[in-house]
Q: What sequence folds into this?
């Protein structure tokens, strides 16, 4: 079953967000809730550091994949075979527990007269990774953004990741990997293209 994809609006007006002070105060509350003293020497600068870190870790909310994918190239000398960028490293955060998801993405498409700059594909993975996520949603978001912007003959995305919410808490099973895939166009309708995608990833 295809994942349900939700487009979260960018925050275009920074004033709609809590202030830096409010964010730092929230960190102080969490430190107290955890049982520590935010006024002790080692934690005095922690609220500011955490707020700054979160701004970087969740910078994907300020970016739109459509902006990154806007420029394409038509001078491809008739090339129409698969374009695959594999082993794109990323980290994200689980939207349920706000702990890291660490993995790699493999993204392919079948050109339909236009191609993307290869770095743009990695950048799209980065944009969606730097948001609170589920792996299923992130996989579908990457595929849909490329499909809608480039209009290729098909898109294939596979994500392999370890979820720290499983490794650090709860069942505490380190090293387990979750695989998710999304296929569109020819990758969805032609099994041979799926097989070729999987074979190229593993080669």
A:
């Amino acid at each position: 079953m295809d994942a349900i994809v939700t487009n979260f609006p960018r925050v275009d007006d920074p004033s709609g967000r809590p202030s830096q002070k409010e964010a730092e105060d929230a960190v102080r509350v969490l430190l107290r809730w955890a049982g520590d003293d935010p006024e002790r020497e080692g934690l005095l600068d922690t609220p500011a550091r955490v707020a700054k870190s979160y701004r970087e870790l969740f910078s994907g909310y300020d970016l739109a994949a459509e902006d990154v994918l806007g420029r394409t190239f038509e001078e491809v000398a008739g090339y129409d075979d698969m374009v695959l960028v594999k082993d794109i490293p990323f980290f994200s955060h689980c939207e349920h527990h706000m702990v890291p998801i660490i993995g790699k993405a493999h993204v392919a498409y079948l050109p339909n007269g236009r191609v993307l700059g290869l770095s743009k594909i990695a950048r799209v993975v980065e944009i969606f990774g730097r948001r609170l996520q589920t792996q299923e949603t992130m996989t579908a978001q990457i595929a849909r953004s490329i499909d809608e912007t480039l209009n290729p003959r098909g898109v294939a995305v596979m994500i392999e990741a370890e979820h720290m919410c499983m490794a650090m808490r709860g069942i505490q099973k380190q090293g387990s990997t979750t695989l998710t895939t999304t296929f569109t166009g020819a990758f969805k309708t032609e099994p041979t293209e799926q097989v070729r995608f999987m074979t190229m990833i593993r080669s």
